[in-house]
């Protein structure tokens, strides 16, 4: 089904997301900071990116803005996944260019449905 990049500083959340995506047949790359995620994108282009909002260094919102501003990465779908799940948080995430916003704890079925919809 393609490759996903998961950017999350929580080892537990990273492992849950990775296991869920692998079970759906995806190859998964991971990063623990926004900067590390952006660095990995210079090496390899995933089919989708799942990013947490609260990260050390640059936030998931900043990562999303950066990705959508660059021609090379602007077409990659971005899912923001966060414990910040208010309507205002979702609105702000979508304003940053996110293609979807899934609150934590992750509903794994919703995640896979969303990934399939965005990746095709």
From TrEMBL:
Annotated GO biological process: phosphorelay signal transduction system
UniProt xrefs under PROSITE patterns: RESPONSE_REGULATORY (PS50110)
Keyword Phosphoprotein assigned: yes
Domain spans labelled Response regulatory: 3-119
Pfam annotation, one family: Response_reg
Modified residues (4-aspartylphosphate): 52
Signal peptide: none
Gene3D superfamilies per the UniProt record, alphabetical: 3.40.50.2300
InterPro entries in UniProt: Bact_response_regulator (IPR050595), CheY-like_superfamily (IPR011006), Sig_transdc_resp-reg_receiver (IPR001789)
Keywords annotated in UniProt: Phosphoprotein, Two-component regulatory system
Tagged with keyword Transit peptide: no
Name listed for the protein in its UniProt record: Response regulator
Naturally occurring in which organism (per UniProt): Leptolyngbya sp. NK1-12
Taxonomic path: Bacteria, Bacillati, Cyanobacteriota, Cyanophyceae, Leptolyngbyales
């Amino acid at each position: 089904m393609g490759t996903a990049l998961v950017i999350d500083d929580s080892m537990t959340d990273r492992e849950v997301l990775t296991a869920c995506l692998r079970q759906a047949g995806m190859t998964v790359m991971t990063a623990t900071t926004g900067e590390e995620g952006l660095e990995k994108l210079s090496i390899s282009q995933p089919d989708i990116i799942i990013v947490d909002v609260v990260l050390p260094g640059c936030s998931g919102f900043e990562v999303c803005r950066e990705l959508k501003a660059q021609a090379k990465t602007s077409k990659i779908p971005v899912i923001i996944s966060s414990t910040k799940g208010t309507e205002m948080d979702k609105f702000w995430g979508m304003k940053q260019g996110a293609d979807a916003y899934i609150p934590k704890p992750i509903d794994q079925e919703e995640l896979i449905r969303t990934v399939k919809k965005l990746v095709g």
